[in-house]
Amino acid sequence: MKFKDILDTYPWEEVREMISSKTSADVELALRKGRQPSVGDFMALVSPAAAPYLERMAALSRQYTQQRFGKTIQFYVPLYLTNSCINHCVYCGFNHSNDIRRIILTDSQVLREVEAIRAMGNFQHILLVTAENPRDAGAGYIENAVRLVKPHFPSISVEVQPLREDEYRRLADAGMNAVYCYQETYNRSRYKTYHPKGMKSKFDWRLDGFDRMGRAGVHKIGLGVLIGLEDWRTDVTMMALHLRYLQKTYWRTKYSISFPRMRPHEGEAFQPNVVMSDRELAQLIFAFRIFDRDVEIALSTREDSRFRDNMTTLGVTSLSAGSKTDPGGYAVYKKELEQFAINDSRTPAEVLAAVKKQGYEVVWKDWDLSLVISD
Question: How far apart are CA 271 and CA 252, in angstroms?
Fold first, then answer.
């Protein structure tokens, strides 16, 4: 059974009602559950009924995170390779309908970006990001980019269009160790409202991509939803279901999660349908850590410095720093086009100082092919 078949057994509105019906007794039970909370427990922890329990949730989240990851935070940096896109996502600055200059970085430009990033700090983990243009910046282009940056970064992740299983294998063979993909929303009936045209409009192709990653043996898989499209409590519950499915099916794989909040972007102004407060985002981070002690939780520069500093000790395991969200933004082009406006503009050195001030250490590198033991 594929996850899409499981997802169809959880009607959106029914799950939404189940979450809203959770009581303080359900929250108390979830907090006492121990090692294996259920998805039902997770619903209680993200429900409105859990709001008065934030301090207890934060304490548990901190405890579980330190037990599993120690007092460490991993740093990564995104490198945007192209804003050329065939999709019409209504919330994105790279929308195909936007009248902007499209850029696909050449080999020499990629290497100039790498040089600029290396000058910013001791980054060892790079995230290669593309818009979706299968013809001009597809799997072959991405594989070439991985090979270009491999001599400079031992840990390479990609956040790109969903690929075929054999293409994920090719990228892994080239040196990639993680794939991040955002379903954006698990609400199938509303999905095409936000993705009217382009390959991203194909809900099942995107959803099945995670299975293709798992079958290809990708070392780490990252999941995420975009906060602002649909009811966030229901969306993240569907993601918790997805995470459990993937962990049981591809148990050798590591997992990471992220829940970016919508930010301003170029083009027609799409107003979020749902606005999540800082307090609610904190509740979500705590809920996921209590639900799963091993999953990595990333927080990008979409969030402001105050919030990121507060979450450093309370459940987050990975932070971006010094991010540019436009292709060539570090050295080649300046402010050509951001996919979205960042909210924490501090330098990597400033973020590093903030992390150390709280008694935590930064992990620049946490993966290497030589550390993976084959059968």
Answer: 40
Please give the average per-residue pLDDT across 199-213, as a whole number. Answer: 97
Closest to 308 (Cα-Cα) out of 251, 338, 346, 270:
346
Place of tokens 């709280």: 358
Whose structure tokens read 């932070």?
A: 319
| Residues 265-309 pLDDT 10s | 555 567 899 999 999 999 999 999 999 999 999 999 989 999 999
Q: Which residue, 302, 309, 281, 310, is CA-closest to 345?
A: 302
At 340-371, the pLDDT tens digits run: 567 898 999 999 999 999 999 998 766 555 44
The residue among 63, 47, 73 whose CA lies nearest residue 293 is 63
Do residues 4 and 10 make contact, with C-beta atoms less than 8 angstroms apart?
no
- Letter for the amino acid at 26? D
Q: Which amino acid, 266?
A: E
- Ranges of H-type helices in the chain: 3-7, 12-20, 24-31, 39-46, 54-69, 107-120, 139-149, 165-174, 188-194, 203-215, 232-249, 278-291, 305-311, 348-357
